[in-house]
Amino acid sequence: MRRRPPRPGALQTLSPLRILTQILLLQTLHYASAFALILFTALAAGKPFSLDLVLSWRSLRGDTAVGWTLGLCWVMCAGAG
Q1: pTM (2 decimals)?
Q2: What are the C-alpha distances in Å from 48 to residues 3, 10, 38, 43?
Q3: Residue 23's pLDDT is what?
Q4: Residue 5 burial (CB count, 10 A)
Q5: Contact indicator for 37, 77 with CB cutoff of 8 Å
Q6: Where are the alpha helices (DSSP H) in 1-81?
Q7: Which of 36, 14, 16 is nearest to 80 (CA)?
Q8: How confident is the model at residue 10 (pLDDT cuts 50, 70, 90)?
Q9: Of 70, 17, 68, 18, nearest in space to 41 by CA
Q10: Residue-level pLDDT at 25
């Protein structure tokens, strides 16, 4: 009895190493763009920059223009990543 050939690309596209690499690449792209955008925005707004602005939502305030601007940066970074 003849064996069927494997589907083309079936094992290569679902490789766990490839999936992990893509996840790491997207996360790196997201945080790099977030770092650049939020650093520029914070410095332009006169707010001291900290990594909390990039990594934690607790540092954002909804009652100030700076908080809304940084929130908008987060949304733009989510679209880029």
Answers
A1: 0.69
A2: 65, 50, 11, 7
A3: 93
A4: 6
A5: yes
A6: 10-13, 16-45, 51-55, 65-80
A7: 36
A8: low
A9: 70
A10: 93
Q: What is the rounded distance in angstroms from the CA atom of residue 34 to the CA atom of residue 60?
A: 14
- Asked whether the beta carbons of 76 and 37 are under 8 A apart, the reply is yes
Question: Is residue 81 predicted with pLDDT exceeding 60?
Answer: no
Q: Tell me the C-alpha to C-alpha distance, in Å, between residue 45 and each of 2, 29, 40, 50, 74.
A: 70, 24, 9, 14, 16
d(CA 57, CA 47): 16
Say which residue the tokens 């540092």 belong to. 59
d(CA 61, CA 65) in angstroms, rounded, equals: 9
> Which of 30, 28, 34, 31 is CA-nearest to residue 71?
34
Dihedral sign, CA of 73, 75, 79, 81?
positive
